[in-house]
Amino acid sequence: MELQPVIGLEIHLQLKTKSKMFCNCNNEWLDASPNVNICPICMGHPGVLPVINQRAIEMALELGLALGGRVNDLSRFDRKNYFYPDLPKGYQVTQYALPIIQNAQLKIANRIIHLRRIHLEEDTAKLIHTPDYKWSLLDFNRAGIPLLEIVTNPDFSSPEEAKLFLRELQLIARYLDISWADMEKGQMRCDTNISLRPINDKKLYAKAEIKNLNSPRAVEDSLKYEIARQKKMWEDGHPPTIDTTYGWDERQRMTVEQRTKEGDVDYRYFPEPDLPAVSLKEFNLEEIKSNLVELPQARRLRFIEMYGFSEVEARVLTDDPILAHFAEKTLSELKAWLLSIEQVEGSEQEIWQKHKEKFVRLVANWLIHRLIHLLDKYKTETAKLKITPENFSEFIILIYEGKISSTLAQQLLEKMFIGGLDVDRAMRDGQMIQIDDVKKIEKIIDKIIKNNAKVVNDYKKGKTNAIAFLIGLIMKETKGRANVEIVKNILKEKLH
């Protein structure tokens, strides 16, 4: 029997508001001491009155409009009733009947994924288990933090699609600056729903819900495991008949059954009596839409069409909005420098087009393969990058004009990276001033030729690649400081 997966996702996204969803407590739980950012409202004390965080609603609208969703005229908060130790009220304030956004969509891998709803709710407290699992501790700093829940239709047909969607949604949240969306830190969490059905069968069968996945990789791996598990049940003649909730055991690489899945009736939803319905007509939707930033997919396409980056390069750069801005600003600085020195006739655009490809190649090579490597080497976030696009463009110009060797360029870039220095200061501090003195270079070349007679003879016999070996020795002797073009010219002259 041929079976196809039917997969839907529920994503919870913590918002970057200053305060919590219904009170004035600081929206901070990762770095704060336990149970300091709490008050009677987020602790669920009797008789308190919550107030809706307006900025959270605006952030929900920003995401919904960015994804082409329909904004409901009226939105309402409801109580979702269930008991769990991390839920101080004994219920969660969420949105059930009237969410903020419906019918949004996101295209990935030439498929359109439909988002059924985007709604607001409050986060729970955090359970912290002791290593021996004898005790569970509660930190209520997280209780009441605004969450966006994004619910998709069961449109995914593979774990790979689900992972790709999750990464793209994570990136969009960062571009919009509504969430840090770091899954490993719990700022973005995902539940998956997975069932199988025979090919061409339109019926939906009993599903497994896998809760609280904390990385795109965990989403992919858990879905792959669950597909294999359910496939065996179908092949054995006992397909799943009850919706069940599972956890993902990363260590054992398997899903673990937790309970049968609750239905809507179990939660006994009813309107939250302490909060008024929200008229979304009062928000200036056109203004919100006009202020939206360029989204990653559009920026990726523009980087390819406008600059000539490859698809891989465009994705690497646009996967981090800070790097994407850095690359564009650098190219803008390079264009301004070129137009200031270029004396040929023609329009500015013609002059830029003539040289653009070489500049783009240099920026792609030194930004993606060198600067990103330094970020990884020194474990530095892009937000803390000390090199400015202006300084980086000056660095690229040195290479473009052939005034610096590749070896020296690598040393110089690292010096700039560590100290946040401009080119001149980094070269002075690192004693990296390029050697342009012809007589000095000639003296070094004579020494290398004298000490490597066999290599010289090989070159004269037709082994032209031998000259590269000699150049390498000269650059090593000068610690990469010799002007490469001068070295090549003198060396060729002496060998002929």
**Structural domains: how many:** 3
**Any idea what the shape is?**
elongated
What is the average per-residue confidence, as pLDDT, rounded to a whole number? 93
What's the end-to-end separation, in Å?
75 Å
Taking Cα atoms only, what radius of gyration do you get, to the nearest Å? 30 Å
Residues in helices, as a percent range: 40-55%
Quaternary organisation: single chain
Q: How do the strands line up in the largest sheet?
A: 2-6-7-10-1-11-12-13-14
Tally of DSSP β-strands: 16
In DSSP terms, counting alpha (H) and pi (I) runs of 4 or more, how many helices? 16
The assigned structural class equals alpha+beta
Main sheet characteristics: 9 strands, mixed
Poorly predicted parts:
none
Proportion of strand residues = 15-25%
Write the layout of secondary structure elements.
Layout: E1 3-14, H1 54-66, E2 70-71, E3 74-75, E4 78-81, E5 91-94, E6 101-108, E7 111-122, E8 126-129, E9 136-139, E10 146-152, H2 159-176, E11 188-198, E12 208-213, H3 216-235, E13 244-249, E14 254-260, H4 264-267, E15 270-271, E16 278-279, H5 285-290, H6 296-307, H7 311-318, H8 321-341, H9 348-377, H10 389-400, H11 406-419, H12 423-429, H13 438-451, H14 453-460, H15 466-477, H16 484-495
Parallel strand pairs: 12-13
Antiparallel strand pairs: 1-10, 1-11, 2-6, 3-16, 4-5, 4-15, 6-7, 7-10, 8-9, 11-12, 13-14
